[in-house]
Design a protein that fits this description.
216 residues, single chain, mainly alpha
Length: 216
């Protein structure tokens, strides 16, 4: 537990902003219905924003995390690459298990075009795999790993804001409700934090064993 506290204290801005965003989401979910929040967050739609978010949301696609993993390998940053791919796989497995367990409907499955005329054409909005948001889970896992490994904490805030906007893109595109995105952010963040802590522990133990073997 002390290890996690030490990690969080190393970047108070990242964790403070994340806590504020999650708290606001939690309070909103406790006061308003999912439908009311969905309509409120989607009050503005333009062709430009439709195009922007259709492309921006790809940051939460698994292909993007895998691409980052490969780039890090080519850059000979294997330790960070291993954290990225492990966090992606772990968070993805948790997300998929929960999707099948909750079997929650996506917005378009319960909201008609008459109620909400801004469902983006070409985007799949139906189905029963809404909770949690897989894209949000993936991007927050990636953002957390990158933030924990950067020495310039200004970048950690950029990673967080990027993840938050990606989460919002899922709501804008009519793919998810706020609860789905909030859960995805929590799962992704906790997955990244756990993987970072665990793999660093393994590295420390491995280095310790090597030193002992050399001393013998």
């Amino acid at each position: 537990m002390k290890g996690f506290i030490r990690i969080c204290k190393a970047d108070p801005v990242f964790w403070s902003v994340l806590l504020i965003v999650l708290t606001i989401s939690g309070i909103s979910l406790s006061i308003f219905s999912s439908r009311a929040i969905f309509f409120g967050l989607n009050s503005i739609h333009t062709l430009y924003l439709d195009t922007f978010f259709q492309n921006y949301t790809l940051l939460g696609d698994g292909v993007f995390s895998i691409a980052i993993f490969l780039i890090l390998l080519l850059a000979e940053r294997s330790a960070l690459a291993m954290q990225v791919i492990t966090a992606y796989l772990f968070s993805g497995i948790v997300s998929q298990i929960l999707k099948r367990a909750f079997h929650a409907p996506r917005p378009h499955a319960i909201i008609s075009n008459a109620e909400y005329p801004w469902f983006v054409e070409g985007i799949t909005n139906t189905g029963m795999t809404s909770f949690p948001s897989g894209h949000t889970t993936s991007v927050f896992a990636l953002a957390t790993i990158l933030a924990l490994n950067t020495t310039d904490k200004r970048f950690s805030l950029i990673y967080l804001v990027t993840a938050i906007i990606t989460g919002y893109s899922r709501i804008y595109l009519g793919q998810h409700f706020l609860a789905d995105v909030t859960a995805g952010a929590l799962i992704g963040t906790l997955s990244g934090l756990l993987v970072y802590w665990y793999l660093r522990q393994v590295k420390v133990e491995w280095v310790s064993v090597r030193k002992e073997s050399y001393s013998i």
